Sequence to fold (570 residues):
Amino acid sequence: MSDRRVDRLTSLLRRRGVVLPSFELYGGVSGLVDYGPVGARIRRKVMDSWIDHWTSHGDIVEVDSPAITPESVLVASGHVGEFNDLMVECGGCTGAFRVDHLIEDSHENKNSLSPEELVAILSTGIECPTCKESKWSDVRTMDLMFSTQIGAMKGGRKAYMRPETAQGMFMLYPALFRHFKQKLPFGAIQTGKGYRNEISPRQGMIRLREFNMAELEYFIDPEDPPCPSLNTWSDSIALVPDPDGEHSGECLITISEALSAGIVRHPTVAWFLARTMDFLINVGIDSTRIRFRQHASTEMAHYADDCWDCELHGEHGWVECVGIANRTCHDLLSHERHSGSKQLKAWRQFEEPRSEIRDVLVPNGASLGPAFKGRAGKVIEALQNLTEIPEKMPFELTLTDGSSVQITDEMATRRSEEVTLHGEWFTPHVIEPAFGIDRIIWHILDHSYTETEKEGEKYSIMRLSSNVSPYDVAVLPLFDKDGMGEIASDILSRVNSMPGLRGEMDSSKSIGRRYARVDEIGVPWAITVDHETLKDGSVTVRRRDDQKQIRVMVDDVLLNLGTGTVSTLF
Fold:
């Protein structure tokens, strides 16, 4: 067995049913993993913690949209044609590799390089990770989306498995706008699977082809960006500012100071950085191994205004686990152009009415009525709502139902008039925190995993936060006889009937072995039923992190377990 810590951790996760290779009976598939009985509980609790963290804010709600996405949606979002990676093939073993992975130690900002520049770097003698050859094919692009079809035969419609959950939330913007009574700001969260056909998945849970995502789209008025007080967050955090900006080099600074200094460029982005830090610490990430790295101007998406990656440090070095971006109005505008919808805007009320001279088209009912009959009302409404008057007639007018009609000279009269404006329609901007749940879970496990030696034997403890531990308590009958097993079963039933709590019972082998088993999957408390329990109803309560034990009455420990205050008994 390898003596590397990461290999011992991976072996434990596999052996104890936390995270395992998928389809192993058939040789496995790289980039796919299974969460076993223990891991699925941890994943669920991390997801639930994330949902509670954001929905507790009050103006953020949860939605759920399909994973199968029509091609037209992903054309508008830019994924079709642009969502790809550059790859090369090894001339020795014919393995396919992402170019940016091969040269990550040879260039600071690999994302800014052209294919020709990438080839030049590869030709300096960079070796294949598999066979150590240094002969490479030309650089090619590979589409990262899994394609599929909705429907059968010629009536089928091309689609893809979603590469992100964000587009589903943009599609739901009109429903969200109604839900929040046409008032910004508001947000939507969505959790679920994302799919990316990675060229060369590696590092276990760090790069997967099917992965768990959790994303938030927060819609704001760019002229009135929300930012709750940042004074709550007085602790300094590690920031790595844009190297092309005024500030450079990693610094320890409070979020409020970073915003005042212009390092963080947007107040709502600053708030999300702070709230993201809160979430990560709450689920057990070591705060000293968290940093926020700002995208360089050459790295940032063309539509973005400010982007930060939250990176976590562990066995695989610094790994991006959260992306926080000010996406401006790019997504909603793009979907508006491609779909023709007029429902992707918001209303901004002016403090005082404004007067201005503007051209309007006055509908001619005598001409519109005979021409459009029952649809004439919708045509008149659309004419009156026009914000941009065409320079000449005839022109195509889009109605609220998405259909279009041709408007001729006799149907409307152009006129300049003074109008009083009480507000205006605008396209909201979007701030998006996107979380890679699998990567976060890996770092929770990595940061929690400790190794010690007890009585000459190596001993592993997973010091998971109680917020994400797979079980809240283990119930252990000292012997499965004399009624101890029945008492333990009754205690377990009482635990499982308490809101939000789950326990497990283990009666196999010695009590020392059982303590070790619950320690290595992160169960914070163990209740042992023994001979004294039969006499007076007391049990031994053991704390995972220091293995200290106390004697407590059953009802007392269950009461404190339900209120999350067991530690006060020690």
Remarks:
- The radius of gyration is 29 Å.
- The first strand starts at residue 19 and ends at 21.
- The chain has a mean pLDDT of 91.
- The chain is about 30% helix and 30% strand.
